[in-house]
Amino acid sequence: MLLRMASVADLIKVSEQDLRGLFRTDNEAGALLRLRAMNPAAACLYTRGAEGATLSVGEQSWRATPPQFTVVDTVGAGDCSLAGLLCSLMREPGVGWDVHLRASVVAGTGACLAAGATPPSAETFARLVNEVKVSVCWFGLIRRSVAAGVATKKPHCAAFLGSSLRSALRYCIGK
Length: 175
Fold this sequence. Notes:
The chain is of the alpha+beta class and about 180 residues long. The chain contains nine helices and five strands. The longest helix has 15 residues.
């Protein structure tokens, strides 16, 4: 059933807990690779609580980390992350995926600042938007380089020469 659902999805949202439950493993990186293989064309939002999220689209991936803050309640944070991503996609379809990921993490972070499943207000969103850090994960380039056994002089890839794809993914998702 998971394969059927994933194969028709345009967007997949999954958390660490989701991956452990779906694949019956503590190896989230391996589970995420298996899930992405079910539909490589789908955008995949992987949320990791206080550690932020990774968004992968085709061969590209971005990682976003939230600012340090005091958590009031995490109920609804994952739903707000997905809602933030979808709202950004609908409101600003022409901007980059990094902008959409930032909106996702801002919305999830904002949800944790109040009790209950409370989406962030527009004011909270505006306050947090510049505090979320987004960086590119060179996952696609790493995967191609490792698969081809090609050495590269790019510093962001140097640590991955001779390593496995799983190690590259772990770096991108912060494990």
